[in-house]
Amino acid sequence: MKLLKLPSLVQQNVFEFLEFKQLLFLSSCSKRTRYLIQSLQKRRWKDIKFVKYSFDENDKICVSVRSEFLIGFFSLSPTTLEQSVITPMEVFGMGPEIPIRLHPKYFGIYLYNRKQKHLVVQGIHDYLYEFFGSSSIDYEVESTENKLPPSLKNISRTCIKVPGNTTAEELEACFTASPNQDYIEINGHFNGILSTNSVILGAEHLTVISNEGHGDEILLGFRGKRLNCDCPFHDATIVQFLNEWKSNKGFHNLESLEINSYTSKKYYDVMVLKDMDVKQLDRPQDTLRITWQMSRSYTFPITSFVPVKSFKSGFSSRDYLIKDGDGEKASVLIEDHYVHFALWNGNSCEMENIND
């Protein structure tokens, strides 16, 4: 390849004019080419915020690579060897035993054998993880299909739309390769049942949306920092949670909890908090506004090209609890279909006057 014989500065200038998918394709030409691209493009790689693998109901695989200045995208569509006469290519570090073929009409779209989907996804992920060589990049899996996604290593964020009739064991298997994730979102036909000591409950931020079951086991088993649930809970479960936190017997990592049971349940604070020794702010005109950043799947604001992975959440309340032993304080608000709970430490607190 003549490119390899050019001076380094010329090579650098050539690479700067190429898009991500062109560089990725070029990197498959040889190990020497790949190492050269890695070496000369480190500056571009360090700004990458995330790599997202998205799967749809037709087994199409979409790979997005984004930063403020880099927009990379390519996709793979399922086919069979009999449907295509394109010569197999050895791309993404995979040999001829896992053939991937460039689409005959559209650059940036590849064809792969549907029966080898998991092998293809694993191969692409391993290749990109080594290609970028940065532990600061978030690798995210997003599944909106009728099948569960493959389990991949070094994934920090996962959003799954659970197919119907999925067992707890099948859902758990999606996370075994990456058990300690920053953010997990469970949606779709989820019935609220997880495996015992599920790794899902160890996610730092967890969002659960379920219309087919209660969230009691999720709350009582949660080991992370922030939990956001759109599903119903039994009153006794919320009482148990508050008692265990207040008596310093559990939930030592928890910083915030939000429950939204708008479609299925209504809560009454006088019933849930009646034996809790709830404190109130000294001045009747004061209320405490407490806020925090809750993780979410990467998105882009209308006014910015910078990817965003969290949103501001919070509530205002005059009521709070004091934990036994260390005196930790937490605001609590139970109103209609909602339950809010958040520590004062670790969150942003601002006193407000309700008369203003």
UniProtKB/TrEMBL annotation:
Residues covered by the F-box domain: 1-48
Origin: domain of life: Eukaryota
InterPro entries for this protein: F-box_dom
Protein name per UniProt: F-box domain-containing protein
Organism expressing this protein natively: Caenorhabditis remanei
Higher taxonomy: Eukaryota, Metazoa, Ecdysozoa, Nematoda, Chromadorea
